Every structure is written in structure tokens, then in C-alpha cells.
Amino acid sequence: MRRALIGLGIGLGLLGSTVVSAPAQAASPVTVPLASTVSTAQQVAAFWLANGAANLKNATPYAVQTVVHGERLSTAVVPDGKPGYVGPVQGPLSPKGKLPTTSGKVFFVGADGQPHWCTGTAIQSNYRNLVATAGHCVYDTQRAGATLDKWVFVPGYSEGTTPWGLYVGKQAVAHYDFDVYTDYNRDFAFVNVYNGVVSSSSDMPTNTGRLVDNVGGQGFAYNQPTTPSVDVFGYPAGPNPDGTRPYTGHTLESSTGPTFTMKLSDLPADQLIGVDSRFTGEGALGASWLYNYSRDIRAGYLNGITISVSDTDGDNRYDTGVSPYFDGEVAAVYSTAAQFATGPIA
User: Fold this and answer.
1) What Å distances lie between residue 175 and 91, 182, 226, CA to CA?
2) Phi, psi of 315 (to 5 degrees)
3) Residues 156 and 164 sit within 8 Å (Cβ to Cβ)
4) How far apart are CA 145 and CA 154, in angstroms?
5) Helices (H) and strands (E) in the chain, counts
6) Is residue 252's pLDDT more than 90?
7) What CATH fold (topology level) applies to the domain 7-12+23-337?
8) What is the distance between the alpha carbons of residues 309 and 326, in angstroms, rounded to a whole number?
9) Assign residue 223 a region: left if phi > 0, alpha if psi is -120 to 50, beta otherwise?
10) Helix (H) or strand (E) run with residue 73 in it
11) Cα separation, 101 vs 133, whole angstroms
12) Phi/psi of residue 191, nearest 5 degrees
């Protein structure tokens, strides 16, 4: 069923839909192939769905660049232009409280040859086929010039199930500075996925349709000020420094807190923001930060992506999620990715 495009007025409730293009002066996006042909995509889907989805079940949370050391600042963020918005698309209402159906896990094979996962979220685009996540949950930063292998997205993932289907990544669109220099100010990526598939009794995948038609899509906002409240959705799984494990990674978790600018001591980046969140790093990489999130319709505006976590008060428990600041250059990458069509593989 085709879902309606929703416009959420910033702080004003529901308004008419709004779509704003990225600024023309923003930096050049880079497009990289993942599973660029249908036959390759079919092989990727079979890898994850075979043997009762054994590789999905055996995957572990990705543990690359999960922790940074930093401090919270009181200085204001500096936008590079006027603020802009793309309205979300409402999906089905989840039976699990007020959680969005757009969130899920992205699965891939890492440099160690083993299956891993991060968090991802479905985001509105022209062809309703776009997933947002951390850049280093697409690029293999442990191997220069490589992307992570067999990349797929499973919204609503839980214990090996694919309630809305499995979506194979066709290509990723990222910022030139992350692609070439691994600039963590630009540690984000948008992935165009093929139509979803599920296993069938004949061992042939069955088409489930386009991603956003099935689960909805979050909106997108850029050049925003820091805000008193954003909602973060992810699958945190790793331990705190003191050894406590508040999360299992098996279920989608949420946190709500204010945002602020960040200064890091161990990552070459100076355009980052933080959010007050107790998510641990492993599993939460790629978690969505939703601005003006409505629990009634499970929709808001993507305005950040967790790329790492930090313990800023020194109590050996993580208290801060870290994201690139979403400015006009992020909008340029999103705008490019939103224009690509994909199609079915089954």
C-alpha cells in the first residue's frame, strides 16, 4: 500500500508536506557499488536467508570505531545555509509500543570474514528505497578503498526474522571526504536498496515490494540548531567500560535527550554534535536521531546518525552518542541518493 507523505511542522504539530532541495553549492557526493547487478543481489540475499537465516542469527555487533573520548561544549553549531526539511512517510503502526517500523539492522561481512551488524533506518526518497546509516557501516575503514561485503537491511529485525523482508544494497552514496580521506565529520551514508525479498517453500525469494511502501520512511532535516530533545533509535549491545551490559542488541531501544556540540581528543573531526544517550557503542552505530518525532505516527526528521559513543563524565558508563552535524553538504549527499531507482530481484 502506498503510504502518505506527512509534513510534521517543527514544534507545531502536523502541517502540509514539505520537500526542500539541498543547496547547490554543497560538496560533491560519491556513489559506490555494492551489489550492482540483480544476479549478485540474489546471491547476497541467498547468503543471508539460507539455512533458516543462519548468517543473520550468527552475526555479531560491529565493533569498529565505537568509542571516542570527548567533552560537551556550550558553543552553538554553525550552519552553512538556511535550514531545510523533507517530510516523512507514515508506515504501519508497530505493535511494540511507540517504536518506528523504519528502524532495523544492516548486516554485512567485515574485514574478518565474519557477519556483523549495525543499525539503519528507512528514509523517504523519490523511489522509496533509501537507508541511512553510519559511513563506516558501509565503507570498510580497515581496508582502504573497500566497502563492506554482502550489505543488506532488515527493518524490524528480531531473532532471525525478517518481518518486512530483506533488502539488498545496490549502491551507497557518501561524501567525497569520507570516501577519500575517511573524514569522520562526514561519517554517514545513504544506501539505495532493491525491493525486499523473503524466503519461500520453493527456496526461491519472493518479492515484498519497495522499502518505504512497506515500513514508511523518516523525513530529513539539515542546518538545524541544537535542540532540547531528539529521539534516538538503535540496537545497542556492547558493554559499558565498567563491564555492565544494559542492552542485549536483540530488540530496538530508544532514548531521548538534548543535543550539543562536541570536542573530541582522539578522532580527527571538528563538526560533530552529541546527544544525551546511554546507548553503548556496539550495535548502536548507525542509530537514527529523529527530530520532532511523533509517537502517534512513529515519524520524525532524521537529523543525526550515531557514529560512536563517549563517557563524558568519567563514571565508566557511556552517556553520549556522537554524530556528524547535518549541514548542507549532508543534504547534497541525501539529495543525490534520493534520485536513484532500483527495482526487484525476485
Assistant:
1) 29, 10, 22
2) -95, 10
3) yes
4) 25
5) 4, 25
6) yes
7) Thrombin, subunit H (2.40.10)
8) 17
9) left
10) strand 70-73
11) 16
12) -115, 125
**Cα 170–173–177 angle (5° rounding)?**
145
List the chain domain ranges: 7-12+23-337
Pair type for strands 115-123 and 130-133: antiparallel
pLDDT digits (tens, 9 = 90+) for 197-236: 998 766 678 999 999 999 999 999 999 999 999 999 999 9
Instruction: Tell me whether strands 70-73 and 259-264 are parallel, antiparallel or unpaired.
Output: antiparallel
Q: Which residue do the cell numbers 552518542 mark?
A: 321
3-class secondary structure, 157? coil
CA angle 93, 85, 182 (to 5 degrees): 95
Kindly report the CA angle at 103 between 132 and 281, in degrees rounded to 5? 75
Residue recorded with cell 532471525: 160
Between β-strands 196-198 and 320-324, what pairing exists: parallel, antiparallel or unpaired? Answer: unpaired
Q: Which residue has the higher pLDDT, 268 or 21?
A: 268
* The residue to which cell 557499488 is assigned: 33
276-295 pLDDT tens trace: 999 999 999 999 999 999 99
Contact 261, 75 (CB under 8 A): yes
Q: What are phi and psi of 67, to 5 degrees?
A: -130, 135
Contacts of 46 (CB under 8 A, 6+ apart): 205
The letter for the amino acid at 125 is S
Task: Identify which of 185, 189, 181, 207 has the alpha carbon closest to the alpha carbon of residue 151.
Answer: 189
CA separation for the pair 269, 290 (Å, rounded): 22
| Residue 12, SS3 per DSSP | coil
HSE-CB at 205 with a 13 A cutoff on CA atoms is 29
- Could you tell me the three cell numbers for 248? 542485549
Confirm whether pTM is higher than 0.85. yes
